[in-house]
Amino acid sequence: xxxxxxxxxxxxxxxxxxxxxxxxxxLAFIGVVDYxxxxxxxxxxxxxxxxxxxxWFVGKGFGLLMSVLSVIVWIGGxxxxxxxxxxxxxxxxxxxxxxxxxxILVWLLARLRSLHKELEARVVERTRALTREMxxxxxxEEEILKVSEREQRRxxxxxxxxxxxxxxxxxxxxxxxxxxxxxxxxxxxxxxGKVVELVxxxxxxxxxxxxxxxxxxxxxxxxxxxxxxLAGNITKGAKVRCVFECxxxxxxxxDAAATHLYRITQEAVRNAIAHGKPRRIGINLSxxxxxxxxxxxxxxxxxxxESQPTDGLGVRIMAHRAAMIGGTFALEPxxxxxxxxxxxxxxxxxxxxxxxx
Length: 357
Hints:
Blueprint lengths: L1 H12 L2 H22 L6 H14 L2 H21 L8 H95 L5 H25 L8 H16 L3 E5 L9 H22 L3 E9 L2 E8 L14 H12 L3 E6 L5 E8 L11
Parallel strand pairs: 1-2
Antiparallel strand pairs: 2-3, 3-5, 4-5
């Protein structure tokens, strides 16, 4: 069966001239065998096969020609082999009936071939349209991520450069006021000091928000620092022990890759806290055999049995981010409970100066 399929594929790729020559050669071979076996054995089915192949692979015109030639060779071979007919009408009638049958077959095969080609053309066109649609969808998704990252960076800069500086100036002015009130022994100086403390807490909060919006510094070690800071903020703010582990420095020279890896980690940690109820979250960054590997593991309740790992929007976004930097994404249950999220990408992808963002 496999050999037959390969033969048909080879015939599809053959030139028209070679198929015409092959069809005529097969007809001659069948005619010789028909003559040698005598007129008592019927060989019409073999002529039929040659006619069908000619009509399918070469065309309707050649199929009709082969039909006429096949009838001529068949009748001529029988006559040469010693066939005798009581009346001249008999071979003519047989030839006409067989030729009509061949003509009908050629017409049906030509029609079927035409429909087959139209279907192939439609499939090709639909495939091209689907490919264009998928490419456009991917372009739009990447553009949305670019706009999102750009806006987050802008807001982060505004928080750091504008709001933090304004709050710092407010805290300094408040501190001056506290000192003046204390110098005059006014009891409200303590209340003013508390206001200054609240403003300083606001400064810390604004800085943390700014780091969350634009966390990765523009240097090779920025991702490790960002992960360390993220783990500290999670431990402090979410009351979940979060640790960052990196046995040896992993330098990421690609700002886009570093940002996407951080966003994947940020989303994974957020999902773990929201749905997994973990006591511990581990973030591990490693490099081995020219492969950078990021792993986020928690000891929470794990994945719900009735849901698929790719059901959530956050998971799809993480997978898309991994694909954008040429990496692979995997989400699976941890052996001891909880979940493990892994993102791996070639080291070469972290060295490119220009990447999708």
